[in-house]
Amino acid sequence: MIDTHCHLDATRFDPDRPAVLERAWAAGLHGIVIPGVGPHDWEPLLEMSRQDARLQVGLGIHPQLLPDMPPEQDDAVLEHLDALLSQGGAAAVGECGLDGPSILGAPLERQVAVLRRHLALARKYGLPVLMHCHRLHPALIDLLKQEELPEAGVLMHSYSGGVELARFYLQKGCHFSFAGPVTWAEARKPLDALRAIPLERLMVETDAPDQAPTPHRGQRSEPGYLPHIIEGMARVRGEPVEVVARQTTENARRFFREAFPPPSR
């Protein structure tokens, strides 16, 4: 199993990060993708990955971070990102994307311009994209109709949209990752999408420390909870847990270009 989106560098893991990882490996995980959200964490994440190949990283600017960044620094920060990506070591570009609640601090025009630069970097370096989209799917769809998608692919992180949106993203070649909400009793719209998406386009994530699955909802999430999410996905799709676990793992290995070491026998 591979957790395709876990903010393992979050301060909430500072007290017990080694124990969190031990629990993850004991739960059967083979790898974790840690998405960078801004320039402050890019180099520490690359170092974390150098220390353990089971930890792969994405480098990007999260749209929720843009309100805290002066717009006049966008070019310089993106040039720094370009330079780091050119050195290798990253398995993806992102987390990046569009965020509706952030528009007050980062207007849509700026968010779109920054996302375009991320897509260009992904094309330049042959890397997949970890895509965040919250309450701005129409704007993202407009952008993806204009932009050439990276050949390495786009992963719709913690997908929460409905079936019709999913059909557009499927047609564009996107993959989808689902997190803890698939186990929540009130979940509806994303579950309809989960049933409609082909298994070969699916991956799984915890988005830890957020979005903990049942029975840990309301607590800090962690990568060791990934089996609960896979069980929830299998239940919704009416498929064996082992089949969903095996296929989502294969999908992740292929999507991230075999970046993870094979599991030890």
UniProtKB/TrEMBL annotation:
Keywords: Hydrolase, Metal-binding. Transmembrane segments: none annotated. InterPro entries: DNase_TatD-rel_CS, Metal_Hydrolase, TatD-like. Pfam families: TatD_DNase. A divalent metal cation 2 binds at H132, H157. CDD domains: TatD_DNAse (cd01310). A divalent metal cation 1 binds at H5, H7, E95, D207. It comes from the Bacteria. The keyword Metal-binding applies. GO terms for molecular function: hydrolase activity, acting on ester bonds; metal ion binding. GO terms for cellular component: cytosol. Belongs to the metallo-dependent hydrolases superfamily. TatD-type hydrolase family. This is TatD family hydrolase. It comes from Pyxidicoccus fallax.
